[in-house]
Amino acid sequence: MSDQQADSSTAGRALGIDIGGTGIKCALVDTTTGKLVTERSRILTPHPSTPDAVAQVVAKFVTDANWSGPVGATFPAVIQHGVARSAANVDGSWIGTDVDACFTAACPQADGVFVLNDADAAGIAEVRFGAAKDVPGVVILLTFGTGIGSALLMDGRLVPNTELGHLELDGHDAEKRAAASVRDENDMSYKEWAKRVERYMQHVERLFTPDLFVVGGGVSKDADKWVPRLSLNTPVKAAELQNDAGIVGAAIAAAERRGE
Ligand code: BGC
Questions:
Q1: 35: how many CB neighbours lie within 10 A of its CB?
Q2: For labelling, which of 1, 87, 102, 220 has a CA lying 20 to 30 Å from the CA of 49?
Q3: What is the pLDDT of residues 60-79, one digit of tens each?
């Protein structure tokens, strides 16, 4: 395929890959609309989830899609200019790994792989196409899952790697008190768990005085069961892209890096 042909077939599109602790999901995304162009496919996260094992899954998605354009991937850790700087819920061998370089080397047919924090990707997706679209000022997205992820946006621009899930709350790492996994592990009702979430979000509110909170993660599909219970001064909206936020945000970030 000539460069020109490759460009016309990949323009305005990017492959988005969402890497989580249990599954890795992928779809092709129209980055101008935020819509998935293909069905989502999913592969179980390898165990141990070492960089090489995960890079092979990323490479399989790229090959299966026969994709030669940009690829964006989320990762559940601090990612500073492509390098993993933390590993709260992933294999410790990631710390110090240049994830961009590792995935890009595994996918020679793609136009580079760009990696960013999972909550940051969700924040980008929600601010472009979801609950925070056209919201000026300070928006904080919090994702409640195995841990708590955060994205801080100012007038639609991301400040990466905020890691607000690791604020100290009552002497504990906040995500150990208020993540969705804590609700599951302790068989808590939404009413009980909402008290913990409220206490955590009041703390974040005091520190940042945001204009809007967006709450995401798997529990956002049950938002009506717990969001109305939160007593906060800041409006709270449920994330709109739900399961697709990571894929869409990663694809947008990759396309923008490429200048589209
Ligand atoms: C990690 C974050 C991540 C969040 C959600 C936290 O434990 O430190 O980097 O965004 O979990 O996956």
A1: 12
A2: 220
A3: 999 999 999 999 999 999 99
